[in-house]
Structure formats: C-alpha cells, structure tokens
Amino acid sequence: MAIRLVISGCGGRMGRTIATLALRDPDFFIAAALEAPRHEVIGREYHTILGGPWDPGVKVTDDARAAISQGDVLIEFTLPEATVEHAQIAQQLGKPMVIGTTGLTLEHFDILYKCSRDIPIVVSPNMSIGVNVLFELVKVAAQQLGLAYDVHVIESHHSKKKDAPSGTAKELAKKIAEGRQVHSKSIPVSSVRVGDIVGDHTVVFAGSSERLELTHRAHSREVFAQGALRAAKFIVNQSPRVYDMSDVLQAEERT
C-alpha cells in the first residue's frame, strides 16, 4: 500500500519538487497539501500548482490538523515556528515526520525532542545523501589533520534564503569541532547570498605547505527532495525518537 504523504510548505520550491517526485513513485500518494494561512495557493487544486498532467484531487489547505490527520507521514519544509507547531499536532495525532526546515534553534529542538517521545521524526539540515557523506568526511579530516591546520567553512545559497549561516554549514562546523574536540563556535563560517545558487558548501583545511578542500554542490533541489522521500519511506515504520539522515542511510545499507 502506498505511503500517504502530507506536504507542508506545498507551494514552495521544495514542496513542489517533493510532490513532483512523489507522484512519479508508486510507493507514495499525496493525501494532503498544507500551506501557511493567507498564502496565495490556499484553496487551489494542487495539480494546477504542480503543472503536471496528474490530478491527485487535493486542494491546498491551511488547516494543519485536518491535513496532517489524512496522511501516514508529514514532510515539513517551512519556517521554524510552523514546524514546531505542526510537530505538536503530529504528536497528538501519532503521525511520523520528516523535517528539512532550516534555522531551528535549541528551543525548537527541545520541542521536537519532546514530540519524539510519541512519534518518530527525521530531522536534517540537509537531506542530500552527498552532504551527509560530507559530514562524516570533514570529521575524519579534522581528526587526522588536527589543530595545525586552519579551517574555514564557506557556504553559498540563493539570495532569497533567509537564514545565514545555513543549517548545513552549522552541522559541518559541529562535525569539525567534534573531530578537533573543540567548541563549534570556534570554527569560522562565511555565508554568501547571491543569485539562484541551490546550495554550495566547501570546507577548507589549510596547512603551512598544503590545502585540502572538501566541496559539495547541489545542482538541483531534486537532490533534497529525493533524500526527503527516502527518509519518509524509512520513518513510517520506526519507533518514536529523533533520527537523522545517517540513520536512514544505515538502514538502507542493511536491506
């Protein structure tokens, strides 16, 4: 039986990309499309927004409880405040979540961890498989190269991205800090917001006579959508707690 998806932030670029890929996958069915109150797409048939030949028979709504209740998994790419509100509703309804929202604070994560007592949640600042491999690579590099090498994280995104540095850059800094056994705030991060860059992340390790650069470039938002859908397939059968993309990848390796 197909997994019934609820897509929150359905009118945004990520929401539309996730929906388009989901409709091509027989493992998924779009059960509900959720957007913020007063959004221009509220009340419209979702297929008219996606621009495809399909008609899933779903109208975009701003009624979070009604939308979330119709699905098996909620995929959330919105703003932090909306994300934690929807997580609390999902907790009450017993619905798993996949969260790709960026800009989450420690206070937001505290709420998510409380919700995860009752529902499984995948949370990741970046759903790309390549980026999640990069997280592990920079930690190993930091361990091997040590404090003798300077390090700097550089991230670039489109001009409309609201948070800076990106959640991915913060996670890279965290992994480097773990490798060096220092505080993540000691790792310098630079942010660039120009044009329509989907997402570039580079970590530079520079010594006295050599330089190591580890870079990931996202060519399309599809890479994030693909990861989110893989996470949805994973989370639907998990026990309550918070998971990340490394859990998803490890589970796939075992199958």
Task: Quickly describe the structure.
About 40% of the residues lie in helices and about 25% in strands.
Instruction: Just give the CATH class of the largest domain.
Output: Alpha Beta
- In which range does the helix fraction lie? 25-40%
Judged by helices, strands and strand pairing, the structural class is: alpha/beta
Helix-strand sequence: EHEHEHEHEHEHEHEEEHEH
Average pLDDT works out at: 94
Shape: globular
Number of strands: 11
Q: Which CATH-level-2 architecture of the largest domain?
A: 3-Layer(aba) Sandwich
Q: Distance N terminus to C terminus?
A: 19 Å
Strand content: 15-25%
Low-confidence stretches: none
Strand order of the main beta sheet, please? 3-2-1-4-5-6-11
How many helices in DSSP terms?
A: 9
- Report the sheet with the most strands, covering strand number, pairing sense and barrel closure: 7 strands, parallel
Could you please say which CATH topology of the largest domain applies here? Rossmann fold
Indicate how many domains the architecture comprises.
2
Verbal overview:
With about 260 residues, the protein is an alpha/beta fold. The chain folds into two domains: about 150 residues, NAD(P)-binding Rossmann-like Domain (Rossmann fold, 3-Layer(aba) Sandwich); about 90 residues, Dihydrodipicolinate Reductase, domain 2, CATH 3.30.360. Strands 3-2-1-4-5-6-11 form a seven-stranded parallel sheet, sandwiched between helices. A four-stranded mixed sheet has the order 8-7-9-10, with helices on one face. Helix 6 packs parallel to helix 7. The model has no long low-confidence stretch (mean pLDDT about 95).
